[in-house]
Amino acid sequence: MNWYLDAWKNYANFQGRARRKAFWMFALFNIIAIVVLTSVEGFIGLRGDGSYGILSGLYSLAVILPAIALAVRRLHDTGRSGWWILIGLIPLVGPIVLLVFYVQDSQPGANQYGPNPKGA
């Protein structure tokens, strides 16, 4: 849970580096939150024709900035500029390239974006 809260504490911090674990734990908690909110919306009748309901829509809107900031810090950890996030806009190939970048290990030692968050 601390990984998720740390992402919210640094919601507009595009500087520095973020570990793989921090990135993927944040993604996991977001998936869980969306599933729970969508289930609640379906249960109480807030969802109509299979589209986003009000709760999951507001949550998705609120989580955009922290998710982008964390993704940029994750790219920094692999030694890439945060502008690489824009490659995700290329259909089919872009998200696959980003996924490969996100699963790569940290660049050892300090890089131009700061010290290694692993501490080693």
Please tell me about this protein's structure.
The chain contains 4 helices and no strands. The protein is mainly α and 120 residues long. It has one domain. Helix 1 crosses helix 2 (20-44).
Described by the principal axes of the CA atoms, the overall outline is elongated
Structural class: mainly alpha
Percent helix range: 55-70%
Mean pLDDT: 90
Would you count the extended β strands for me? 0
Number of helices: 4
SS strand fraction = under 5%
* Main beta-sheet annotation: none
| N- to C-terminal distance | 23 Å
Sum this structure up briefly:
This protein has 120 residues and is an all-alpha fold. It is built from four helices and no strands. Helix 1 (2-9) packs across helix 2 and helix 2 packs antiparallel against helix 3.
Record keyword descriptors for this entry:
57% helix, 120 residues, 4 helices, mainly alpha, elongated
Secondary structure topology:
Blueprint: H1 2-9, H2 20-44, H3 54-77, H4 93-103
